[in-house]
Amino acid sequence: EVVDGWEPLLRENAKALLGAYQEYDGFPQSTEAHLNTLLARSLAIVNECRLALPILSSVIGQMSSYRDAWTVRGFCEFSIEKFAEARNSLEQAYTLDPEKPEIQYFLGRTYLALNDNENAATFLQYALRNGLKPEKEARKSLAAVSEKMGNPTGAFEQLKAVAEGDDAQRDDVVALGQLAVAQQRIPEFMETLKKAIAKWPEDPSMQLLMGRMALSQKDTVQAKAAFQKVLELDPTNGEAKTELQKL
Known about the structure:
Elements: H1 8-25, H2 32-45, H3 49-62, H4 67-79, H5 83-96, H6 101-113, H7 117-129, H8 136-148, H9 152-163, H10 170-183, H11 186-199, H12 204-216, H13 220-233, H14 238-246
Helix pairs in contact: 1-2, 2-3, 2-4, 3-4, 4-5, 4-6, 5-6, 6-7, 7-8, 8-9, 9-10, 10-11, 11-12, 12-13, 13-14
C-alpha cells in the first residue's frame, strides 16, 4: 500500500524494504539470518542505519562468519561516523573475503576518515584493480589521499579519469580545472575540456570555462572564439560579453 501511495520518499523507502523480501523469496532454502541481513541492507540504503545495526549484531551473534552482515555493519558504522568500529567490521569482512571490491572500497574510505593514508590508498587501489563499479567515488577518494600524501600528480590523474569517465558530470570537469590551475597544468586540462565540450556541445558553461582557461594562457584567439560561442548559446551571459569587450 505504501509503494502505491502518494508520498515520494515513503514510496522509495517502501520499495527498498519490499525489495529485501522479494530477493529473499528467490532463495527458498535461506535462513532467517539472510532475510535480516537483506532487511538491514535495505534500511542502510534508506539512511536508517541506527535501526539496521541492532539487527546486524543479532545476525553476527548467530553467524560470526557471515561476510555480508559484517560488510553492511561496517557501512552503517561508517555512515554514522563510528569510524573505528567501521574499520573493525570491514576488516572482519575483508578477512572473510579479501577479493570483494566493495569491501575494499569502504575499508579505504574508513582508513581515509581515520587519517591512515597509506592503508586508505592501498585499499582504494585494490578496489579499482578488482573491478569496482562505478569507479568514480573511489577515484575521488584516491585523489584526496594522494593530495594528503604529497602526491599532486596522482591526485590530478585520478580526477582526470573521473572527468573523462562515461558517468562524468560538469562539476567533475570544473573540479579538475581548479586542480589544474593550482598545479599549473592548464594545457593538459584543456585536452580534457575539449572532450567535455564535445560531450556537452550545447552547454555554455563548458565554453565559458574554455574561455577563462585560454585567457589564463594568454591565448586570446581561442578565448575570443570560446566567449563568442557562449553568447551563441546564451545571449544574456554577462561574463562572456564583458570579456569580449576587453578583448
